[in-house]
Amino acid sequence: MTVGSELSIGEVLSKSNRNLEWLRDNYDELKQKYDKQWIIIDNQSVIHSASSYSEIMKAMQTENKNTAIVKFMTSEPVAMFF
After folding, report:
1. In the chain, how many domains are there?
2. Residue 32 vs residues 36, 48, 51, 64: alpha-carbon distances, Å
3. β-sheet bridge partners, residue 39
4. Are residues 39 and 30 in contact, defined by beta-carbon separation less than 8 angstroms?
5. Other residues' Cβ atoms within 10 Å of the Cβ of residue 36
6. Is residue 66 part of a domain?
7. The dihedral of CA 2, 23, 48, 72: what is its sign?
8. Distance CA 8, CA 63 (A)
9. How many other C-beta atoms lie within 10 A of the C-beta of residue 20?
């Protein structure tokens, strides 16, 4: 089965996983460089950044990437409650 006309589901999952690993490995540097910005990551690099959610969603539609990751970056500590 393919997603769109280009990639199989396995390929999409594999590329998405590589993007997540790259985000994890480069998180400290990225949060400093893109503090308080939204970013799109694809092919293990930042392909777009924006200051607002609406801007990044507009860019995401333009990119039309099945494997991209959208993430808000901040250098401030984030409290998590479970």
Report:
1. 1
2. 9, 16, 14, 27
3. 49, 71
4. yes
5. 11
6. yes
7. positive
8. 18
9. 13
Classify residue 81: in a domain, yes or no.
Answer: no
Residue 67, domain extent:
2-73
Residue found under tokens 């540097």: 29
Whole-model pTM: value is 0.82
Q: How far apart are CA 62 and CA 60, in angstroms?
A: 5
pLDDT digit string (tens) for 44-70? 999 999 999 999 999 988 866 788 999
Average pLDDT, the chain: 89
Judged against a pLDDT cut of 70, whether residue 10 lies above it is answered with yes
Q: Give a yes or no: residue 82 inside a domain.
A: no
d(CA 53, CA 72) in angstroms, rounded, equals: 9
Residue 1: predicted pLDDT: 47
Q: What pLDDT shows up at residue 62?
A: 81
Instruction: Name residue 34's amino acid.
Output: Y
In a domain, 80, yes or no: no
